Amino acid sequence: MKPTARLLIAGFIAGCAFAESAVAQQPDADVPRLVLTGGKILTMDGHATVAEALAVRDGRILAVGSDAAIKPLVGPQTRVIDLAGKTVVPGLIDTHAHFKAAGLGDYVVNLGAARNVAGALQMIKEFVAGKKPGAWITTGGWHPPSQLVEKRYLTRQELDSVSPENPVYLRTVGHFSMANSLALKAAGIDRTTPDPSGGSFERDASGDLTGVLVETAISRIENVVPPYTEEDEIRQYTIAEAALNSFGITSVVEGATSARDTRILEKIALAGAATLRVGTMFRPEPPAELSAWEAIMSGNGATSGFGDDWLKLGGIKIFYDGGMTLKTAMMRDVYPDSHDDYHGIAQQTPERLKQLVSIANKYNWRVGVHVVGDLGVDQVLDAFEAADKEKSIKDRRFILIHASLIRPEQMERARQLGVRVDFQNVFMWDKAATVERFLGKATADRAVPTRTLIDKMGLDSLGAGTDFPVNPINPFLNMFIMVTRKDPAGHIYGASEAISREQALRLYTSAASRYMFEETRKGTLEVGKLADLVVLSADFMTVPEDQIKDIKADMTVVGGKVVFQR
Predict the structure, then answer these.
(1) Structural domain count of the chain
(2) Are 70 and 24 in contact (CB under 8 A)?
(3) pLDDT in tens, 342-396
(4) Domain range for 206
(5) Nearest 5°: CA angle at 407, between 257 and 426?
(6) How far apart, in Å, are the Cα atoms of 438 and each of 199, 334, 494, 495?
(7) Neighbouring C-beta atoms of residue 132, cutoff 10 Å
(8) What's the pTM?
């Protein structure tokens, strides 16, 4: 057992409010190692069964039922936890997050709390003060247009003023970034540098660089930022896994995984140190030549589904358009207040997208495409349909990632192809007002149309994630928004798209498990499935609606082991 796990269990025995007994003598292979009794266990099985007790052996669920049925299974080495009426749900599954960001606190300047330009610059200045001259200054995801009262990005000149001796590169939500003069120089970017296809280096009226990079231009600086050491990355991922466990998350789909990320996650899993089950969406940068893309797809022969219960290849991730609050999502209608025929930005042409998808499909890779706008969804579905004609994708669960502005007729197209949609309601928590400002109230109301998606496609074709760190990782905040459609001010966007509590929970459990084809292994609390579960601070099904977002994980169990206890 890892020292951290040993400490968690010791702390649980010493200080937890649950009544517990744990007696261990000679092990008996036929009795459970863990029994939970006296609770409200929401199994989320096909009949929405509610049980009182549950037994675990060898990391799997041995039995589920009444206290009277489970208690006779207890042996001398069984650890028994009296839940004292608390609610238990299956381990939560976030189907789209960039979760390494949860472990970067010591490595990047955190601008999540910045509310104006001056405040953001002061945070950067203070962080720089603790670094040696020449060291790179970076940040995790944040969103200046919705966070800052000025509703804009920081300029190169502003960043130079607080970091004259250190290159600064500020990542945001993945489609825009900011850099100071030293960072631009390190990447060989100056006022004469041409814009790349599908992106731009923003310039002011005089043609000087502002330091803002858009879409494909971002990679020019990403490629020169020094990588972390392997030791640093193992530490970052280990911290991140524990952070997600603290929210009751037991599985996650890493939304854009590099080969290096996969190697680090593999080392953690092989060392027996993983506390989070990870599915990866491998995101290679599409090279200019299709032959090079084909070489990446053929790889060493491994394809989607390869792996085990701790680390598994989910598919290939391709970026297509941008985002609603970035005014880069590909839209059927011209953007409001646009001075020309502007419909958004695509990172490649529709024809090239078809080629990339076709080649991936040829080598048995499932494909997930980042797409937000309705025009973008049209073009991605065109690419999926073209691939399907070459080699069927209907049982492969290709994915529309985000699809925030998907239309009902597009949902029908996706359903016929067997395509999943994995969306993020929590995006609208602090960004709905920005969507309204850029695209209008009607568009904000129809964004992330959850009820319509369920009606048109069925729960089993859907999943809910967060896109952390773009949005908060808290699954109960996400489910609160699904149920209420409220933002922090209490404004409701698209009330008709609200769903029930059970539906919201299924989008994090039974439906979410289907992302990685693992519905027979997890997502519900049934005999034989992995013993991944969460003890909640309040009853999700009955707590007052506005308190859903305040529910916490009191205890998280993965594979029958306690990995978090509050």
Answers:
(1) 1
(2) no
(3) 999 999 999 999 999 999 999 999 999 999 999 999 999 999 999 999 999 999 9
(4) 108-222
(5) 50
(6) 20, 12, 17, 20
(7) 8
(8) 0.87
